[in-house]
Design brief:
about 400 residues, alpha/beta, Aspartate Aminotransferase, domain 1, Aspartate Aminotransferase, domain 2, 2 domains, 3-stranded antiparallel beta sheet, 13 strands, globular
Amino acid sequence: MYAFSNAVNSMHSEDIKRLLKQSSGNNMISFAGGMPNNDLFPVKQIDEIYDALPINLKKLCFQYGAASGYPPLVRSLKSYLHKKGLPIDIDKILITTGSLQAISIITQEFVNKGDIILTENPSFVGALSVFETYEAEIHGIPIDKDGIDIEALKQKIASLDKTPKLLYVTPNFHNPAGIIYTPERKKALLEVLSNTGIILIEDDAYSDLYFNEEDKYLTKPMKSYGLADVEIIYTGSFSKILGPGFRLGYMLSSPEIFEKAETVKQALDACTSNFMQILANEFLSQHKLDPYLKFLRFEYRDRKNILQQSLIKYMPEEVIWNEPKGGFYIWLKLPEYVSSTDVFKESVEKGVVFVTGRTFDPSSKKDDRIRLSFSNMPKDTIEKGVKILSKVIKKALKSIPSETV
């Protein structure tokens, strides 16, 4: 027997392994993968960018780079984030190998074994796996359609015998719940955190993927509010707006936090891929991102509409959900007496996979939810998949003893 460390025992890391296997199953209709569709990637544009690079930049693609990031990409990101109202002249940008690395760096920077981290419940499973790896004590706070439950958050903070180190939230087109925080809820959250010493991680991978222009204002980052009494670290990603294979993310933080984060980053992997940073920088600096985002918004809205209409058509009335305004996900709520894990087992046999609600619960218990991702779905299979899934759910509803109902 090997003497493995405690860090390898994350329950949610095992969930991620299963999720990746589900997402890539052959001959399956998969609502599991929270990823773009391969046919949507800007392959032609990237080909043109690389072919046109001068030879010195092509050589640089293969070289080591600065731990903090490729300087031209940092400058391009400053311009991109400035449009979101973020304090790029005060805070500093660290380029990371995906936004999950940013979350990992922040956790390593601040959290010791037994320290408390607050998250939403449900929460992004990748972040949960990181927090577990660093042996944090995780407390989940429920959310509703408008964001985190403010009263529950207040009660949780008051009930703890020590101050949480971090609060981790995904306020824009939440993974897995698909919701977006209202401006009122964002302000209320910041009021709760004011002068507590709790650092807010504002994870924002999806805000550019709103479906309708009139909802864009909802995506305003909390870090752009300019509050001095709440420390906010803002994280973002190219995975949903360019491609997960780029493995590019970033964090925007105060200079003091940046300095320590850069040290952690250096120890982890020395630097993020120069190859991918150079390509991403050219994509941004050549003004290719905005038209590409318009294309993606149309495509994802189309898929969402097909899924929404199919759910209305086929799902039993006991199943409820909120229609998302952007992002990748619809979050179904089953009656509490129906287990999404049980539904999953039969659904797989019928050729349809999804992600169970338990995966996103910090305590890995609550199991009356189903995450459906429409982003990776071929349009012509969405209705068929919903039809199969709805039959399985209807069967599960009928099998419940009448006294339970």
